Amino acid sequence: MHSKTYLFLLLFIFFAACSPPDYGTRLAFGKAELYYTEHITESEAIRLQQYLQGSGTVDQQPLSVQIDKQEGTYQFKMVMVEGAEADEENIQAARVTTGELSEFVFHGAPVDFHFCDERLRTRMIIPYAGSLPKDDIVTE
User: Fold this and answer.
1) pTM summary value
2) Could you read off the pLDDT of 13-53 as tens digits, one per residue?
3) Could you tell me if residue 138 is inside a domain?
4) Residue 97's closest CA among 83, 112, 109, 116?
5) Dihedral sign of CA atoms 86, 91, 97, 98 in order
């Protein structure tokens, strides 16, 4: 083999090894990006996008989330700074989020909240605990 061929093969292997993971289809809006996997329909992803936009969260700071579905349970994955999962306020907010997403986005289906690192690898899961108490549900 020629040296150019070796160089090409080495570069191919390098770039293949360094290519970013496939997070799914990307929707960008405001300062946010939402990825959805092949287990999520486009309409589900758009409902989630609209919910996030309506919450005002996406206007305040950059946000990266992914939505997936495994065995009938939605997995809402959010990139959070390391240690965020140790803060009780964040855990409570994640519990509320699972109920809201279930009620307002996914028609009552269970939703788990995943605290994730910058590569959307799960550090901690807050499992779905049921729907919101009726006092917490706000209808428009």
Assistant:
1) 0.77
2) 333 444 456 789 998 888 889 999 999 999 999 999 999 88
3) no
4) 112
5) positive
